[in-house]
Amino acid sequence: MYKDYDFVYQAIASLEDILGAVIVIDHLRKPDGAILHINEEAFFCLLKKNGKNSNYGTIKTALDDVGLLDKKIIIADYLTKSTTEELKKNGVNYLDAAGNAFIKTDDIFIAVEGRKSKLKKNTNQSRAFQEAGLKLLLLLLSNPESLQLTYRELVERTGIGLGSVSNIFKELEANHYLLRTKNRRVLKNKDEIIQRWVVAYNELLKPRIFRTTMRALDKNSTTINALDKSDLKLYFGGEPGGQLLTGNLKPKDYIIYTNEELSMIAKELKLIPDKAGNVELYNMFWSDNLNLKIDNTAPPLVVYADLMGTWNERNIEIAKQINKNEL
Question: pTM (2 decimals)?
Fold first, then answer.
């Protein structure tokens, strides 16, 4: 088992204490799977750090990738109440480091709630998946040719500090995400980088750039149509971004990234403030130097992260299409 999976041992130990029975884990699979035996029943386990709301989409996708195995358990370091409710509703077994669990088969039923984890949180967060690193990785993943730029050119394109760029590249290399050859830099383990980016973006950066929530004055109007006629710098994420990238989604909730004045946005798009509205406004956090695939659409990685951060099964399916065709 890898060092980042101490929470798995803690989860099993906690459940053993509750049940008064020995639980065996074996057939460890690289990097995030294992086989767990409870009362002589075998379960395939999907091991997930950061099993929070923002990671539900990645949990759902990973479960789908496992295929038709009958008995599966998500083992996570921590799961919020809303996440566990969603997992239970969908018949997904789970176990966290504190011993909170829902495991149901024909012969086993375990339901434990309200226990608090004793695991110490790791305060040594990765620079690459903090705010500056997320901005740099967005550029590198969206425009792969930018990998060959100088550090100073990357500073100009991202707005982050020269020291940050240098430290992030060193960390990416140390963690086997970046390979330096004689003449080039190459990103490795791209899928893993993308999934870590999605979780960190939804948990860390997205809440910081949130501005306000509004709704349309006319319930029958579509924000996309209004944006087509606007001269403002406005970019769709979330569901409308998914529609523009795939053509397979009809938006109900809207995400718009922009640094324009709120009063101008409200006037142009005929919106009014409403905390329960379906139009969320966020600051744009990438520069004009980032080449977008479609005008008025946020970078595909951002749209993908927005959709993966929802509970909506349809959104997650569209996100998979974006990951396959655009990332």
Answer: 0.77
